[in-house]
Amino acid sequence: MGSKTPLYDRHVAAGARIVDFGGWDMPLHYGSQKEEHHAVRNNAGVFDVSHMTIVDLEGERVRDFLRHLLANDVAKLKESGKALYTCMLNESGGVIDDLIVYFMHDSWFRVVVNAATRDKDLAWIRKHAEDFDVSVDERAELAMIAVQGPNARELAAPCLGAEWAEQALALKLFTGMEAGELFVARTGYTGEDGWEILMPAGRAPAIWDCLVSGGAAPCGLGARDTLRLEAAMNLYGSDMDETISPLEAGLGWTVAWEPDDRDFIGRAALEKQRADSATRRFAGLLLEDKGVLRNHQRVVVDSIGDGEITSGGFSPTIGRSIALARLPAGDYDRAQVDVRGKLLRVRIVKTPFVRNGQVRIEV
Amino acid sequence: MSELPGDLLYTNDHEWLRREDDGSVTVGVTDHAQAALGDLVYVELPEVGLEVDIGGDMAVVESVKAASDVYAPIDGTITAINEELADDPERINADPYGDGWIVKLQPSGAIDESELLSPEAYQSLLDEEDA
């Protein structure tokens, strides 16, 4: 028996198939993962993401602390509520976790980290926070619901309370705001527009019911994974871990090199890797033959070398198999993948595969 | 509760067999198996004429979640494959004991039913897995 979110009873009542995820009993799907996937691309879906770890960081020097702790630069965050996606690295440039950090006000930032990495993340953050006199406060009493899809915001606005709807609908991309006891942010993990809503656990069931009766389809972790794969959003533990740097995981864009005197953890190791032409590349693959690409399958690049699929699966939107893969350095656009002893043809494509309901690659 | 027809034989690998009047055997995966796999997205079928040994790989069913081997439940020769599954693998989800059949086999000898499970024995297996 794992930990249960405040919405566990809702999932069971809706017929969810429950699986263990990082110590939590979470819904995998409520009947059909594919239908849930399509609901998010075409209308709206709602996800219980209360297992994620929310941490508030407070102190006079919290900005300096995060500029040291994170590979992206929170100095970019000037407006209250603005969010930033970033990696938290170890000294060798490996990724301890990827996270979203919200700027609340000058002495308060909020970070949301992965459930499966909670313990090591908190230990790492606490260890480094001491030097900056920053308090680290896990907000375990908060639940989190993501509502995603082209109609998600409109459908969800009434559920926030009438006094907040208008202001919430005016939120810019990657920005959040407090709405009484709630925190609403225009962020997500699906490649669609939508919100992530943080709330006291006791309010979660009523807000969930409001979203579902408004027309959002309950969606499980299965659809969450195929949606994020189509959007080419990395999954910690699959696409990167403590032995992999952001530069080898397609996350070079999240590393803020300027100003060049900002001393963030892992910087020296990343600088070395950045100058090395042998650093592996990270790319999207589209399967041209029949079959399904899966995690850990070997990618064979003729006369160059081997790579590995880090996230593979079937894309319900495209109707073909797609993958993210770590590949040997070099200039090429075709490869083969060893699928149970057979070499199948793949094309290397520019990601994302799908964004805002549209297929973005040539199929 | 998964559906479990009483006129079929079953295996420990969650496959079913139907003994047809012409002596052939139709094989598919059970309702329990399709539910555990989730939405099917691809089925790799064998060639007609392939000779298979009991326990050997015969087909692969792939869902949104995972790939799963389908093993030969008896010794025999593949006489037919369900070609509809190439374009519509979700037939296995919708109708695992009917339209979602996978292959037909001609047994190479007498079928040893002691190697297979009765509906009651298969139900016990499911009960144990749930426990």
Describe the structure.
The complex is a heterodimer of chains A (363) and B (131). Chain A is globular. In chain A, the strands form 5 sheets. Chain A has a 6-stranded mixed beta sheet with strand order 10-11-12-9-3-13. Chain A has a 6-stranded antiparallel β-barrel with strand order 14-17-16-15-18-19. Chain A is built from 9 helices and 21 strands. In chain A, 21% of the residues lie in helices and 34% in strands. In chain A, helix 2 (33-42) crosses helix 8 (221-230). The mean pLDDT of chain A is 97. In chain A, strand 18 (334-339) and strand 19 (342-349) form a beta hairpin. Chain A has helices at residues 8-13, 33-42, 62-69, 118-129, 152-156, 162-169, 204-213, 221-230, 267-275, and strands spanning 17-21, 24-29, 45-48, 53-58, 83-89, 95-105, 108-113, 135-138, 142-148, 176-179, 182-185, 194-200, 217-219, 281-287, 298-301, 305-315, 320-327, 334-339, 342-349, 354-355, 358-359. By secondary structure, chain A is of the alpha+beta class. Chain B is α+β, with helices and mostly antiparallel strands and 131 residues long. Chain B has one domain: OB fold (Dihydrolipoamide Acetyltransferase, E2P). Chain B contains 4 helices and 9 strands; from the N terminus they run E-E-E-H-E-E-E-E-E-H-H-E-H. In chain B, the strands form 2 sheets. Chain B has a 6-stranded antiparallel beta sheet with strand order 1-2-3-9-8-5. The longest helix of chain B has 12 residues, at 119-130. In chain B, 40% of the residues are buried. At the A-B interface, loops of A face strand 4 of B.
